[in-house]
Amino acid sequence: MKNKSLLIIASFITIFCACQDDFLQMPLSNSTTADSVFSTTVKAQGAIANAYKRILSQGLPYKNDWNAMIQDNLSGALNYGFGWTLSKDIVLNGMSASGMSEDMDGFNNNFPPIRQAYQVKENIDRVKDMPDNDKAIVKAEMQALIAYRYEQMLIIWGGVPVVSKSFQANENLAVPRSPLKDVVDSVVTWCDQAASVLPSKWADNWSGRMTKAAALAIKSKVLLYAARPLFNNANPYIDFGANNNLIYLGGYDANRWDAAAKAAEAVILEAETNGGASIINTGNPLDDYGNATSKPGNPEVLLAYKFINNTLFDSGNWNNLPMNAFYNSRVWEAQGNVLTSNYLQNYYKQDGTEQVWPNTSTTLSFSDYTSKMNQMEARFKASFQPWEMDAWTNPGDVNWRNQSTFGNGPGYGVARITKFYYKAGSRAWFEFPIFRLAAAYLSAAEAFNETGQVQKALDRLNMIRRRAGLPNVTETDKDKLRTIIQREWAVEFFNENYRLHDVKHWKLANIGNGIIGGQIKSFAFNNNTTVKLTGNSNYTDKVIYQAFWSPNQFLNPFPQNEVNKGVIIQNPKY
Description:
With about 575 residues, the protein is mainly alpha-helical. The protein has 22 helices and seven strands. A three-stranded antiparallel sheet has the order 2-7-6. The chain has a two-stranded antiparallel sheet with strand order 1-5. Helix 4 (about 40-55) runs antiparallel to helix 7 and helix 17 packs antiparallel against helix 18 (about 455-465). The chain is globular and about 70 Å long.
């Protein structure tokens, strides 16, 4: 293919696709438009790049709708921020079929990107100046992208309509939900097909495109969630009668954990043997984790959201403010969305022991707060900036000093957010890591533990812990080790689009009592007055609100207006 990087091509689509959006979002009605779009390799590259941008944006804060942290708000990791944020009503009252959803795009908006990927796949053969081998790879890329979007939908909604092609204008567009097993099987098949064609590595000028390891990572994730208790159980989470096959897999099957373990191992083998990927571990935990999550193009990331949008304002419309427009967007996010003490408990001290924090009846000096913050593990320091302290992630940089952050805090909050901006300086964007190799290691650890292969589980788990500078885990009790592995997921993948659905699919016993629902707490300062950038005197723990949880929220509701059409069956109890 031509020597232009995916990143450059992604910028090109803002011009190319301005006049093509209708075609890319609607069913094809004639061949003239397709012939035009796919007349040359250069034009086709615009459609390919836009397919990446739109498919991979699912669940990400690609627009700063003041909900950039919405999944972490709902999982209890961060408070919901200011009172007018989109998260507030969901946190306090739960999801509804007629109200807000945690997926900012909503269910309906999954299908235009899927349709676009199918259109590229189905029309790439029209390009006369593209070699047949390159066309085959493009088709595999599109199939893997479609698999990714379906894997994400399955995790959120369960069984969803499976679309196997782009529709023509005269075709019946009413497609019912497919059984959960059929969606899992479709994703696995698509990933296997794509992986058999995709390259293990791309040349540097095409960095960021789908690889064999990335396709296998999609397969690994869908099989992991298929093995977890929400879907892999003797009974559905709510009896759905004749529609139970839409929300669970029909009973517990231990073989699903074995399949998940094998899939995770396949990712590790392919990524490290052929793909040039590796867990970054130079012996400097802060630098290693910071680079793994923040540095564009680092060897741990298998797939990233690479699109750069430098638009700052669109006629003053905050809704069109992209997440990567400028680093100060993180300051705005952190101003309202601050770490809760519920989630803080997942982090270790840098020596691997437990930190002791105040409770709601204890007030300690502010010097105790700063002292304990300095004792925390590297992954905490790479993700947060405590009050009255400069960010560990950008030492000596004026952009990341305590005084450079926006105003005072909201009156409470453990710490502000700095993740994804390690040694960023004034860098205005970052590449959101959709799949890091570390996820395959934790997936393997989780699956090996469930199949009784404890030593293999420990080997995979401790690879990630050693990189974090923590001592090896030696626990061999299956239930205790499961808890440790789940805690590792929480710390390693904070704010990476995992936590909310991890806790749901694990069906954690305390999910309604301090995770998604129940008392959400955070630190309050100066006898419960507003935290300041300087001069704080004391701190305590404080219940800041009572969050909502109901078992129907294990899966999300479909939009009521879609259900009213009589094709989509609503998830139970909505």
